Amino acid sequence: MAIPPDTPPGVEWQALRIACDRAEELAGAAYARITDDRLDKLAAELLATPVARVRALACARRGVRKS
After folding, report:
1. Could you give the C-alpha distances from 59 to 28, 44, 52, 63, 67, in angstroms and in order?
2. Cα(44)–Cα(38) distance, rounded to whole angstroms?
3. Pick from 31, 56, 34: which is nearest to 46 by CA?
4. Does 11 score more than 60 pLDDT?
5. pLDDT digits (tens, 9 = 90+) for 15-53
């Protein structure tokens, strides 16, 4: 970010704060998009494993809810 050298300090800090807030918003949106897709795929993969199926069956037989 290019800030002219004669910019008053208060204005400079405000511009930096606004830029940082916007960068945080964009990073959060990108992270959410990436993790949502990956977590959905990971959950499907984990639920498809034999261990998960056996555990789900055992819980269903006992009437226990998975936490």
Report:
1. 37, 19, 10, 6, 11
2. 10
3. 56
4. yes
5. 999 999 999 999 999 888 888 778 878 888 888 888 888
